[in-house]
């Protein structure tokens, strides 16, 4: 069986690696130059996209920002999973907010901004603490602005007036005083069967995910039910097939959806060592019609992103329960270079591994690591 993935980055690479033991061939589309490539070497396969689509049994994506002409071509083949409607909802915050409202899924109060003057009304109705997001092409903290107090409004309006808001509207959200950020990664198969991974707790720095811990500590059954209900509503709405990630803000005993990601997700990388069946393998299983794999956590896990640096010691591989995953990229500020998965039987054991890991890292590039280790050490 052959799978064609749109996007040729690390997520396609990890899907390829998960598919090999299943006897499934994976190739990728470099959406920047419209070429079909090997997901590992990035070498051109000297194959047109049209021929690759014809040869493939199923098409999928590694990220939602696929150029719409390519997405339309993929959808017209009848082989795209998940479908383009779901992918576009993840790529466009206006569509995303619309489906959340339609399905009565709780999310942050917001206004859609197509001209800067509408920010005045947004402040009047939502207050003077706002986070403003580009509706498309924003990720890892890019395409976002904050209004912390009313005195900043005129300056912010001046900045945003330079943008084409008719073509790419903004979403002005009320800044939520959340306690923490959580994400649910789940998978739905061709026959509608669903498996959930445990909720993960995510720690961000400057708009980027730095650390995920799973299962997240202090998760009640009520929180689980809220997260899983939101997931089920979304996958049923789109007749979704594959892995879907839903990011939440926890506010007291309630969850508000922050974003949806119609693909394998950074906060699910811990599943590579933390479960029997990783999110990457389960995505391949789902879209090819294979039975879904076990998603239960084996113990406690942490995923630490390596961002914008390569001056760590590979001696970290000597640490028990430590696994390094590199993406083969050249260093650039804020670029995800790889990740490190850690496991332990308990949170305190996991914290001990995290503290040991810090000795092998330029700690200034991992600002969330030791604080999170201290928190986990106090749980057990």
UniProtKB/TrEMBL annotation:
<feature type="binding site">
    <location>
        <begin position="258"/>
        <end position="259"/>
    </location>
    <ligand>
        <name>ATP</name>
    </ligand>
</feature>
<feature type="binding site">
    <location>
        <begin position="173"/>
        <end position="176"/>
    </location>
    <ligand>
        <name>ATP</name>
    </ligand>
</feature>
<keyword id="KW-0067">ATP-binding</keyword>
<keyword id="KW-0436">Ligase</keyword>
<dbReference type="Pfam" id="PF02222">
    <property type="entry name" value="ATP-grasp"/>
</dbReference>
<dbReference type="Pfam" id="PF22660">
    <property type="entry name" value="RS_preATP-grasp-like"/>
</dbReference>
<keyword id="KW-0547">Nucleotide-binding</keyword>
<keyword id="KW-0658">Purine biosynthesis</keyword>
<dbReference type="InterPro" id="IPR011761">
    <property type="entry name" value="ATP-grasp"/>
</dbReference>
<feature type="binding site">
    <location>
        <position position="133"/>
    </location>
    <ligand>
        <name>ATP</name>
    </ligand>
</feature>
<comment type="subunit">
    <text>Homodimer.</text>
</comment>
<comment type="similarity">
    <text>Belongs to the PurK/PurT family.</text>
</comment>
<comment type="function">
    <text>Catalyzes the ATP-dependent conversion of 5-aminoimidazole ribonucleotide (AIR) and HCO(3)(-) to N5-carboxyaminoimidazole ribonucleotide (N5-CAIR).</text>
</comment>
<protein>
    <recommendedName>
        <fullName>N5-carboxyaminoimidazole ribonucleotide synthase</fullName>
        <ecNumber>6.3.4.18</ecNumber>
    </recommendedName>
</protein>
<comment type="pathway">
    <text>Purine metabolism; IMP biosynthesis via de novo pathway; 5-amino-1-(5-phospho-D-ribosyl)imidazole-4-carboxylate from 5-amino-1-(5-phospho-D-ribosyl)imidazole (N5-CAIR route): step 1/2.</text>
</comment>
<dbReference type="InterPro" id="IPR011054">
    <property type="entry name" value="Rudment_hybrid_motif"/>
</dbReference>
<dbReference type="Pfam" id="PF17769">
    <property type="entry name" value="PurK_C"/>
</dbReference>
<comment type="function">
    <text>Catalyzes the ATP-dependent conversion of 5-aminoimidazole ribonucleotide (AIR) and HCO(3)- to N5-carboxyaminoimidazole ribonucleotide (N5-CAIR).</text>
</comment>
<feature type="binding site">
    <location>
        <begin position="138"/>
        <end position="144"/>
    </location>
    <ligand>
        <name>ATP</name>
    </ligand>
</feature>
<feature type="domain" description="ATP-grasp">
    <location>
        <begin position="97"/>
        <end position="288"/>
    </location>
</feature>
<feature type="binding site">
    <location>
        <position position="204"/>
    </location>
    <ligand>
        <name>ATP</name>
    </ligand>
</feature>
<feature type="binding site">
    <location>
        <position position="93"/>
    </location>
    <ligand>
        <name>ATP</name>
    </ligand>
</feature>
<dbReference type="InterPro" id="IPR016185">
    <property type="entry name" value="PreATP-grasp_dom_sf"/>
</dbReference>
<dbReference type="InterPro" id="IPR005875">
    <property type="entry name" value="PurK"/>
</dbReference>
<dbReference type="InterPro" id="IPR013815">
    <property type="entry name" value="ATP_grasp_subdomain_1"/>
</dbReference>
<dbReference type="InterPro" id="IPR003135">
    <property type="entry name" value="ATP-grasp_carboxylate-amine"/>
</dbReference>
<dbReference type="InterPro" id="IPR040686">
    <property type="entry name" value="PurK_C"/>
</dbReference>
<dbReference type="InterPro" id="IPR054350">
    <property type="entry name" value="PurT/PurK_preATP-grasp"/>
</dbReference>
<feature type="binding site">
    <location>
        <position position="181"/>
    </location>
    <ligand>
        <name>ATP</name>
    </ligand>
</feature>
């Amino acid at each position: 069986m052959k799978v064609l993935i749109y996007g040729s980055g690390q997520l396609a690479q990890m899907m390829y690696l998960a598919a090999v033991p299943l006897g499934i061939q994976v190739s990728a589309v470099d959406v920047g130059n419209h070429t079909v490539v090997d997901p590992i070497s990035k070498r051109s396969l000297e194959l047109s996209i049209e021929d690759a689509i014809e040869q493939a049994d199923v098409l999928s994506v590694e990220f939602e920002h696929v150029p719409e002409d390519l997405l339309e071509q993929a959808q017209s083949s009848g082989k795209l999973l998940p479908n383009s409607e779901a992918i576009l909802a993840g790529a466009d915050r206006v569509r995303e907010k619309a489906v959340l409202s339609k399905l009565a899924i709780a999310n942050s109060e917001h206004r859609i901004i197509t001209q800067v003057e509408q920010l005045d009304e947004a402040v009047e109705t939502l207050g003077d603490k706002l986070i403003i997001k580009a509706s498309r092409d924003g990720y890892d903290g890019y395409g976002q602005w904050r209004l912390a107090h009313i005195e900043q409004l005129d300056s912010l309006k001046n900045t945003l007036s330079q943008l084409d808001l008719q073509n790419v509207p903004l979403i002005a959200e009320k800044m939520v005083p959340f306690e923490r950020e959580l994400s649910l990664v789940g998978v739905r198969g061709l026959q509608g069967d669903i498996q959930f991974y445990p909720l993960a707790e995510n720690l961000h720095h400057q708009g980027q995910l730095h650390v995920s811990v799973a299962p997240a500590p202090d998760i009640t059954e009520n929180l689980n039910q809220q997260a899983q209900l939101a997931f089920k509503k979304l996958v049923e709405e789109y007749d979704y097939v594959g892995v879907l990630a839903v990011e939440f803000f926890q506010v007291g005993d309630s969850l508000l959806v922050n974003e949806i990601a119609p693909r394998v997700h950074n906060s699910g990388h811990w599943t590579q060592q933390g479960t029997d069946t990783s999110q990457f393998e389960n995505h391949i299983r789902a879209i090819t019609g294979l039975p879904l794999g076990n998603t239960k956590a084996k113990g406690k896990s942490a995923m630490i992103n390596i961002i914008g640096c390569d001056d760590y010691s590979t001696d970290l591989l000597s640490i028990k329960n430590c696994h390094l995953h590199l993406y083969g990229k050249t260093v650039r500020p804020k670029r995800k270079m790889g990740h490190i998965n850690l496991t332990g039987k308990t949170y305190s054991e996991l914290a001990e591994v995290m503290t040991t890991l810090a000795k092998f890292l330029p700690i200034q590039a991992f600002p969330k690591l030791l604080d999170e280790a201290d928190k986990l050490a106090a749980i057990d």
